Amino acid sequence: MNCSEIILLAIALSIDACVVSFSYGLCIEKRKRINALLLALTTGFFQSLMPVIGYLFTDIIRTFIQPYSKWLVFLIFIYLGINFILDSLKPNKFKKLCLDLKTLLLIGIATSIDAFSAGISLSLTSSPMMFSIIAIGLITFIDSILGYSLGVYMKSLKAKYLEIIGGIILIGLALNSLF
To answer: Is 34 exposed, middle or buried, given 0-12, 13-18 or 19+ CB atoms closer than 10 A?
Structure first.
């Protein structure tokens, strides 16, 4: 792949992270800048790491994980989407929508499964790995910040409905991962 193709690949890979960040931007009330940064760093890091793993272990991993990757992404996004919706239905004093370490790790893994597969493709096409890693991570970081910011901007709607919309978006991503 040449540099422009790698940049287009990076943009395509970053879409899931952007959408997930948008969903969280709609719902999180406190520490907006820190949460935006945490999401962007997590998704950018995992989007950079997964192609390396795919690149290094192309033959071994493709055989064992590739058949199940869609289901893994599906299960993680379903879990996150249902949590969004359930949190929206709780009374405010019991609401606990936050970006803890477990949630960040799940988001990082779920949004980067495609990047793992891209790493296999990068290996098979002898693409420049360092440029690929930097482009994928940086573009994902930027798209995640943009998605989160857009979600925060759209908060003028009632929070309960936004959380349900965020959950539906995540469930939609889960279903989309199967096709």
So the answer is: exposed
Q: Tens digits of per-residue pLDDT, 132-172?
A: 999 999 999 999 999 999 888 887 666 566 667 767 776 77
Among the listed residues 41, 38, 43, 35, the one whose alpha carbon sits nearest the alpha carbon of residue 15? 43
Could you give the number of structural domains in the chain? 1
Contacts of 178 (CB under 8 A, 6+ apart): 70, 71, 74
| pLDDT digit string, tens, across residues 40-64 | 999 999 999 999 988 888 777 667 7
Q: Which residues 6+ apart lie within 8 Å of 73 measured at CB?
A: 110, 113, 114, 173, 174, 177
pTM: 0.72
Q: Could you tell me the residue range of the domain that residue 145 belongs to? A: 3-177
